[in-house]
Amino acid sequence: MAIMAAPPPSAPGEPAPPPPPQPLQYSLLLQHLVGDKRQPRVWDPAIFGGIPCPPKSEEQKMVERVMESCPFKAALACVGGFVLGGAFGIFTAGIDTNVGFDPKDPYRTPTAKEVLKDMGQRGISYAKNFAIVGAMFSCTECVVESYRGKSDWKNSVISGCITGGAIGFRAGLKAGVIGCGGFAAFSAAVDYYLR
C-alpha cells in the first residue's frame, strides 16, 4: 500500500494554489453551441457597423402580408407566365419556316401581314398556356407551403406533381402520372439549382 504525501501547507497569508483546470468536455460545449442550452441572439446591425433600420410601420407590414399571400403570388406568376409565354410564342413563330405555308402553292412567299398574324396568334396561345401553368404551380406551391409550415424543396416537388398531374390528366390516367413525375422532376431540378 503506497502512502501519498500531502501537499505542503501554505504559509499563513499566502493564497491557496488554484485548483487544476477541468478538462474541456466536448459534449458540454456542443450543447451550448447547437443543443438545447443554445441561447438565441439578437443581431443588431448597428453593432457591426451596419445601418440601423427603424421598426416596420403597420403599412409596411400590411404590404408584406399582401405580397406573401397565395392570391398575390398566383397572380404574379400568371402575369409573368403570360409575358414570358407571349415572348416565347412570338420567337418560335418568327423562326418557324412553315408560317404562311400554302400546300397549293409551295413557292409562294408569305406576306408580312400573314406572318405577323401567325406570330400574334401563336404568342397569345403560348401566353395563355404559360399563364395557366404558372398560376397553377404558384398557387399549389403556396398552399402546400402553408399546409406544411415549411419552406423547402419538397414544396416545389409536391406542387410540380400536382400541377403536372392536373394538366396531364386531361389526356388520361397514364398521361397524368407521367405529367406528375415530369413536372416534379423538373421542379426539383430548378429548385436545386436556384437554392
Describe the structure concisely.
Helix content is 62%, strand content 0%. The protein is an all-alpha fold and 195 residues long.
Structure description:
This protein is mainly α. The chain has six helices and no strands. The protein has helices at 26-34, 58-67, 70-95, 112-148, 153-168, 173-194.
Strand runs, count: 0
Mean pLDDT: 83
Instruction: Give the termini separation.
Output: 68 Å
Detail the poorly predicted runs: none
Radius of gyration: 33 Å
Which terms would index this structure?
195 residues, mainly alpha, 6 helices, elongated
Helices, strands, pairings?
Elements lengths: L25 H9 L23 H10 L2 H26 L16 H37 L4 H16 L4 H22 L1
Helix pairs in contact: 3-4, 4-5, 5-6
